[in-house]
Amino acid sequence: MNAWLAAAAVDTAVLAPCLWRCALGPPEERLAAVALAGPVVTVLFLLLSQGLSRPSYGDLALVLAVLAPAGTLVFTRLLAGEPHGDAADEGTG
Amino acid sequence: MTGRHAVALVLLSAGSAALLLAGAAFARLPGRYLRLHALSAATTLGAPLTAAALAVETGPGRAALKLLLIGGLVLAAGPVTTMAIGRLTARQGREQPR
Amino acid sequence: MTALIAVALLLTAAFATLAALTRDPARQAIVLSGLGLALAFLFTTLQAPDVALSQLGVGTAVTPLLILLTVRKVRRPRAGDEPDRPAPPDRRRERR
Asked: What are the transmembrane regions (chain A) (predicted)?
């Protein structure tokens, strides 16, 4: 367990608030939680790549750094026309 | 080498602290617009600082350039994402007045 | 390393349970995106980066996108309705 893996283990704690906020509330708040989880997981990939001394794992971080904002923007476009706030409010999670 | 390692460790602890702060803020802040600020703390401080730490550790070369590119991507995408979510929150029309 | 795998497993289990318990498909798609991130992290800690790469592509972008597109297509007929109407399967409402 070197410093990079220890930092990765510490940084996984940030995913707990993401999980919690992802469980409650309207879609835009859940989307904020996922949008916070994206950079955190990118950092985790980078730290794992250095800690396990596998440089090829950095490709994962690169792919996620491109895909996560794109996915979030797609979500915001598609959720904008969503007439939420009706019967779907009950019984969520 | 040991000096570079020390610099990398300092940058890494700063990045991890920023990420942890963002996580705590995201859990604690009231109001959905305030929580968006926690998101920007993670993208503008946490991820680029950690990427810079790894780039310092690997030394000059293409690997460091790739790490800096990843950090720059996250840094550039953070405000865009935050603005998009904020606009979505405002448009959904159920926002609290704060 | 074992601690990281344990945390990733717990995270994946929590996200999967949450995705199964969420009722609204739009919210479920967002939780599913988070589940994709957690699964990719789990695969990386288990040192399977190729699986994690495909999981990233499929789980965080494509599957939630397909679900949201489907939800949008299905819900469009009652998009102009009153919000508190239970939306019966009424064919006349489709043309708005």
From this structure: 31-48, 60-80
